[in-house]
From TrEMBL:
InterPro entries in alphabetical order: Diguanylate_Cyclase, GGDEF_dom, HAMP_dom, Nucleotide_cyclase, Rev_trsase/Diguanyl_cyclase
Species whose genome carries this gene: Undibacterium umbellatum
Listed SMART domains: GGDEF, HAMP
Taxonomy of the source species: Bacteria, Pseudomonadati, Pseudomonadota, Betaproteobacteria, Burkholderiales
UniProt entry tagged with the keyword Transmembrane: yes
Descriptive protein name: diguanylate cyclase
EC code(s) of this entry: 2.7.7.65
SUPFAM superfamilies for the chain: Nucleotide cyclase (SSF55073)
Residue ranges constituting the HAMP domain according to the UniProt record: 169-226
Catalytic activity reported: 2 GTP = 3',3'-c-di-GMP + 2 diphosphate
Length: 422
């Protein structure tokens, strides 16, 4: 998805500040120009009035003494003031004296002053009229306005530049650093702390609030991920335990806790391969409880289950830990797998178990009778050409031979005896 072009906050604020600066320049310049206009106009009128007050006494004496030349000299002196373009003096006797640019009379400002008598200020000896040159006033106003504009513009530019520099330094750069950090942050880098390069004397402000908020979010995400990882690890452990339990249930006989035939079929080929590869001995003991069907028929399956469980415990007592293993092959049949064991040693193990069962395996019935149990055993040793089927088949033949010859015995009695005929 395409994103609109980036508009930095600092640039937006700079544009807005610029607009407000221009507006302030216009307003302040206008106000100051109006105030200066009033001040200059007032000062201008006061200056003209001062000229009149300074020259009125001399004019009064010159008119009183009827000295036309002196009056003309005074008019010339007054006209030296650039603000006065034309002077007209009218004596009370009707005489009139003029000087200056008559063309300015129509366009200029007229100011009339009474000329008091030298001896009595309450009486007048004439009037003096000044025609003020407005161009001088306008030039002064224009000069003042230009100065104001220059001052305001310089001040505004200085403020604008200062504001721009401050915004870029204190806002745009930290926000850019924050944006780049967030943009480049990867899932495996959540522990990386956000550090902004800022001037320390700025104090704690909204940018610090954003940074602290982001750090808090990072900490929360890390805790959440850690909790999720722990939860996943716990669920994985539970699943592995459940799978292990299911696996154990799938390879274990539920009654006797011995391995079942499924595990035998999976594990036995590897046992034979290992024995052949390293030239080790391997023997099987095929066990069968004598007259087990009669026990079930006469005493019930509960008694039969008790016999199976007790018999399996007798077999387990002869197993070497982490070496030998026993399988309930089917019904009342069990197979003991004895790695690193020759035939003669396997026969001795089978004989010990047979005697143990004969002497100590009995079930006390509810009516007080004691049910004694015996078992028959067929033993075979691995040959170089053997497979799982041939090894089991040979042990099964010796078991059949033992049951056919009276039960409660181990076959072959002598390991040199040849295998029984089919």
């Amino acid at each position: 998805m395409s994103h609109p072009p980036l508009q930095p906050i600092a640039s937006l604020l700079i544009r807005r500040v610029f607009k407000w600066v221009i507006l302030c320049v216009v307003c302040i310049s206008s106000l100051q120009a109006w105030l200066n206009y009033r001040a200059i106009e007032t000062n201008f009128n006061m200056a003209v009035a001062d000229v009149a007050r300074a020259n009125l006494p001399l004019l009064s004496v010159a008119i009183w003494d009827i000295e036309p030349q002196t009056i003309q000299k005074q008019i010339a002196q007054i006209l030296k003031n650039p603000s006065i373009a034309y002077v007209a003096i009218t004596a009370s006797t009707g005489q009139q004296f003029t000087g200056g640019d008559i063309n300015r009379v129509a366009s200029g400002q007229h100011m009339v002053f009474e000329i008091p008598a030298p001896a009595d200020a309450s009486t007048s000896v004439g009037k003096v009229e000044f025609v003020v040159d407005q161009t001088v006033l306008r030039k002064e106003l224009l000069r003042s306005f230009i100065i104001i504009i220059i001052e305001v513009v310089i001040l505004s530019v200085f403020i604008f530049v200062a504001v721009v520099a401050i915004l870029r330094r204190d806002l745009e750069k930290p926000m850019r650093q924050l944006a780049d950090f967030v943009k480049n942050l990867q899932a495996n880098q959540l522990s990386t702390k956000l550090e902004l390069k800022r001037i320390p004397e700025n104090g704690y402000n909204e940018i610090d609030l954003v940074v602290d908020g982001f750090r808090t979010m990072q900490d929360s995400l890390q805790k959440h991920i850690a909790n999720q990882d722990a939860l996943v690890a716990e669920r994985t452990s539970q699943l592995e335990a459940a799978m292990k339990s299911l696996k154990q249930l799938s390879i274990t006989d539920g009654l006797t806790s011995c391995y079942n035939r499924l595990l035998f079929n999976e594990r036995m080929p590897a046992e034979i391969q290992r024995a052949v590869r390293y030239q080790r001995q391997l023997s099987l003991v095929f066990c069968d409880i004598d007259f087990f069907k009669r026990i079930n028929d006469e005493h019930g399956h509960a008694a039969g289950d008790q016999v199976l469980l007790t018999f399996a415990q007798s077999l387990a007592k002869e197993l070497r830990v982490d070496v030998d293993w026993v399988v309930r092959y089917g019904g009342e049949e069990f197979i003991m797998v004895l790695p690193e064991t020759k035939l003669i040693a396997a026969l001795e193990v089978a004989e010990r178990i047979r005697r143990q069962v004969e002497r100590h395996l009995f079930i006390r019935m509810p009516d007080g009778k004691v049910l004694r149990v015996t078992a028959s055993f067929g033993v075979s040793e691995l040959l170089a050409t053997d497979t799982v089927e041939s090894l089991v088949h040979r042990a099964d033949k010796w078991l059949y031979f033992a049951k056919s010859n009276g039960r409660n015995q181990v076959q072959p009695i002598d390991h040199l005896i040849s295998a029984p005929a089919e």
